[in-house]
Amino acid sequence: MKRITVLVAAAVSLLAGTAPAGAQPLGADSALDRFHHQRLDWKACGDKELDAAGAQCADVTVPLSYAEPRGRTISVAISRLKATNSARRRGIMLSNPGGPGGSGLGMMLAVKQRMTADVVSRYDLIGMDPRGVGRSTPVDCEWPVGTALRSSGADRAAFDRTVRFQADLARRCAATEGALLPHITTRNTARDMDVVRAALGESKASYFGWSYGTYLGSVYTQMFPHRSDRVVLDSAVDSKRYGPRMFQDMGEPNEAGLDDWAKWAAARDAEYHFGTTARQVRAFVEDLVRRAARQPIRVGEHQVDQHALPLMLFGPLADSRHNALLASAVRTFADAADGKPVRPGPELERDLRFLLNPEPATQNSAQSAILCGDVAFPRAPEWYWRNIQRSRASQPVYGSFANGIAPCAFWAPPVEEPTTVRNSVPALIVQATGDTRTAYASGVDLHRAMTGSRLVTLQDVRIHAVFGNYPNICVENTVNTYLRDGALPRADLTCRDD
Question: Where is the signal peptide, in residue numbers (predicted)?
Fold first, then answer.
């Protein structure tokens, strides 16, 4: 309700030369004129779902380095679902699905399903593959695995193997994509977003982001506060936690999520045979991880060891609607460990193949490229080992992952300092208390840092990414009202599961 006051204050701040720290200088546009005024060639996306929805796609030319805008250029792919009522159209809504490293061209197809007709009538919904991802000059470090995410294992020998594994991934990236890597950063993606805004002829851009997309969106508000319109940040990352702390924050909520799932599975012991109490089910899972440490579990063509198994359980744990999917995966791994012939279901096969045997189109070295390009991680392996050891008692399944070493420990230093988000740009922050990927406290902290924001809490639900993903009338009404009218709630709001 204080939107007008906040905007006036922001305008005064900009005119006085006191824009938020990290904001782009107001005179920086002149060197980018040729990018801001480029003409886009809209065409069919070549994607079944986007084309069926009537979307169009275009490639936007941006500088590889914004420090040298007259140097090499790259292209960024965007999609557009046009506003359904040109007379009521407000502008564009940029978006990002998270990751980092997620392809966003088709993201708004899902989000649109939870938007009311009067919201859909007002915005051109813009999907985007961020630089380094998908169709946007993709990073491919020629890794033998799909992602660097791994648990560090049960003992020092396993940890030392993980150190060597991560160092090798970093070496491969430096060898194959060394010239590109310094420019694959969140700040540059935010700059690309602003080029997209200008190329589409808009003075401002609204934004919707999930997960890492909330970090990107909040960085955009810090760098371009006067160009930010209506902003929704769903399952939020606070800028002060982005990096190693963001991963450490995952340990506790994933253990809590495992406890929550264990209660569900215990009530279905007749089907899954893990145990009749939550404690027995948890003990079953912990023992399964220990068995993978003693002997990798063969599932189909895949060998699942102590480094991979916790990650295979990590995915479905993020959504309580996937309880049965997680139980089926645990049953499959347990049967395989017992020597029984098993065939993984299609979802498990897809996840195994991505983690262990990726196709060129599914490899995700861009995730590490963005993280490591944004933030300097501690370099000493002992720092990670000490944190892992401290976490083992309270986080027996996920502590070795959440505190583990990453390729970033062996990466070249970032070319820019990371962005600290602290501003009064109006925004709506949505956060579930049971989120296993972006801890609830992270959303609370971002809310405090963005003083013009309101926080919508989804209470006692284990879900990551709410609006457009997990149906909830309270959240949907609040988000749609804000996007339609620009009216934030009068105060922070708590929603309950429907």
Answer: 1-23
Task: Tell me how far apart the alpha carbons of residues 451 and 328 are, in angstroms, rounded to a whole number.
Answer: 44
Contacting residues for 39 by C-beta, under 8 A, at least 6 apart: none
| pLDDT tens by residue, 220-265 | 999 999 999 999 999 999 999 999 999 999 999 999 999 999 999 9
Q: Which residues contact 193 (CB under 8 A, 6 or more apart)?
A: 94, 128, 205, 216, 220
CA-closest candidate to residue 99, choices 215, 231, 262 = 215
The 10s digit of each residue's pLDDT in 474-490 is 999 999 999 999 999 99
Compute φ and ψ for 149, nearest 5 degrees: -65, 125
Domain range for 382: 156-179+247-410
Q: What is the Cα 378 distance to its own chain's centre?
A: 22
Q: Collapsing DSSP states into helix, strand and coil, what is residue 473?
A: helix
User: Read out DSSP for 338-389?
Assistant: TT------HHHHHHHHHHHS--TTT--HHHHHHHHHH-PPP--HHHHHHHHH
CB 282 within 8 A of CB 313: no
Number of domains in the chain: 2
Q: What is the reported pTM?
A: 0.94
Distance CA 342, CA 362 (A): 25
Structure tokens at 5: 């006051």
Q: State CA 362 to chain mean position distance.
A: 16
CA 243 vs CA 122, 366, 403: distances in Å:
36, 15, 11
Collect all residues with Cβ–Cβ distance below 8 Å to 342 and sequence separation of at least 6.
Answer: 299, 300, 332, 335, 336
- The H or E element that residue 58 is part of is strand 56-63
Domain boundary among 376, 410, 444: 410
Pair (111, 224) in one structural domain: yes
Query: Distance (Å, rounded) from C-alpha 304 to C-alpha 352?
Result: 8
- Are 184 and 373 in contact by the 8 Å Cβ rule? The answer is yes
